[in-house]
Amino acid sequence: MKKTKNLTRNKIVAAAWRLFNERGYEDTTIDEIVEESGTSKGSFYHYFEGKDALLGSLSIVFDEKYEELKEQLTPEMSAVDKLTFLNRELFRMIDNSVPLELLTRLLSSQLITRSEKHLLDRNRTYFRIISGIFSEGQESGEIRTDLTVNELVRAYAMMERGLMYDWCLTGGDYSLSRNAGEIMPLFLNGFRTEQK
Q1: Structural contact between residues 191 and 80, judged by C-beta atoms closer than 8 angstroms
Q2: Domain around 31
Q3: Cβ atoms within 10 A of the Cβ of 175, count?
């Protein structure tokens, strides 16, 4: 039963983001989302209070991308290589298929909401995958151990959000993935153990 509920919710989310990408957020109606998803209005309102509530579902889209990318990680990759790869590919997806307006709305909604802060939800797939990579990196001796895994994950997540926030502030006038490709390795190198 829970699988069916998640499937319905995910169909609504996927349809909404397709339409937002094609038509823009303002020009997409709830009726169009319901029709595109093949669900009902009752189902829509069961999961979402309204169209604005879908903004938080972008974190679901990100998590699905991370699940997909996780399959491409290999044991031969270092922890820093894995994190750099995940960041680059997620940001490439944002560059190519997440409208700037929607990412801006998501980030601003997280600043003013008094309820759930979707991007900070530690139960997300994102945090599970990143934590696992840092943990493995510490166990292999690649990642420094004077910081806890939680501290490392927190710093990494802050850096990613900062890069997205800056991209939104500048109106997306540069490639998010290319910019992160230059900055993120410098940042992540600070997590490596010192090689003698």
Answers
A1: yes
A2: 1-48
A3: 14
Each residue's pLDDT tens digit, 150-176: 999 999 999 998 998 999 999 999 999
Instruction: Specify the 3-state DSSP secondary structure of 99.
Output: coil
Residue whose tokens read 């290589």: 81
Phi-psi group of 116: left, alpha or beta (phi > 0 → left; psi -120 to 50 → alpha; rest → beta): beta
**Secondary structure class of 143 (helix, strand, coil):** strand
Residue 196 inside a domain? The answer is: no
Q: What type of residue sits at position 165? A: Y
Residues 41 and 64 in one domain: no
User: What's the count of helices (H) and strands (E) in the chain, helices before strands?
Assistant: 9, 0
Look at the pTM and tell me if it is higher than 0.70: yes
CB contact at 8 A, 51 and 99? no
Burial class (CB in 10 A: 0-12, 13-18, 19+), 190: exposed
Which residues touch 53 (CB under 8 Å, ≥6 apart)? none
Going by C-alpha positions, the residue among 55, 33, 142, 148 that lies closest to residue 99 is: 55
* 31 burial level (CB within 10 Å; 0-12, 13-18, 19+): exposed
* Whether 103 contacts 168, CB under 8 Å: yes
Classify 188 as helix, strand or coil. Answer: helix
**What does R_g of the chain's alpha carbons equal in angstroms?**
18
